[in-house]
Design goal:
Shape: globular
Radius of gyration: 23 Å
Structural class: mainly alpha
Largest sheet: none
Oligomer: single chain
Helix content: over 70%
Strand content: under 5%
Number of strands: 0
Number of helices: 17
Amino acid sequence: MTELRSILDEAARQGLISPEAGGRLLPFLSERGVAVVEEPATSAEGRAWSDTETPRFVRGFHDVLITIGVIVALCGLWGLAALYAVLPAIIVLSEILVHRQRLALPAVSLTIALFCWTCLLMSHFFPPWTPTSQSFGAEATQFVAGFPILLGVYYVRYRVPLSLALSIMSALAFVLTLLLRLVQWASGNPAFFLDHPAVLALVSLICALGLFAMALYFDLGDRLRRTTRSDIAFWLHLGAAPALLYSTVSLLSLGADVRILDVANMSSQTPAVVATVTALMLIGLIIDRRAFVTSGLLSLGVAIFSVFRQGSATVDTYIFTTLIVVGAIVLIIGTGWMPLRRLVLRALPPVIANRLPPG
């Protein structure tokens, strides 16, 4: 009964049925002997965890075909019409493909289209990259302010997990800009962050940890990953890993003129990058999130690329060597994920391990 109720509640959350219909269906189905067959916990969890991150935004090639049409049509409209003509097209397509037909991959593509549209709109009114080399201006705060609102409204209407994840990430980015402006105002020094890069890195790390905490909140709330909370956590982890990486490396590389989100300068800090990515891989194993690990591999590749570039190898040699090393790491982690995770879980206290996804 409890499992049947949870399935009906999830269907109501996704808009497939109304909450009232779910309440009437539960006794109707129960009286007629409809039930969800529960298998032994070990076998059920074993099968569920054989592939814990199956993308729910790809449900068949029909979704892929429709998504290609959406992308081509929006690109054509974007090139021919004004910026304001794109938003009605996104809304109309969302009503048909997301609200009515509940197509997963088109929902993701339309959410990304809305994000890009919002970026162009806000940059038109509040250019965040004005030549203010000495201070952190208000333009960045005003630029970010529109993202949580528009993406949040889109989630309320269409219940796309990516839209809520992007809304949360942009809200934390808005908080970051407010904190930076507050610190700059309190110091009375327009060039405060140029003189104190450690403060900039520390504030960025705090916001990155906040994003990771939000991802864990959704993740641990759905330990068996059966609801959309797991999908929201998936996207949040994709954003949390690089945010943690860049802010941590920036904090560890003080005095090396490393700026936030500056891959070119960060690539010279190879030991810090490798150590941070290793720590992220361990965290990914603990929480059973391959997406968390994957999003840091690009920066690891940049770091390894830097090692060979600083040596005497030719261009072709260090490019292909980098590919081999990163590819080998991916294969080792991918093929040995479950055995490695069991080893990690055994080392954790039972109080913590019992709250994590089963190994």
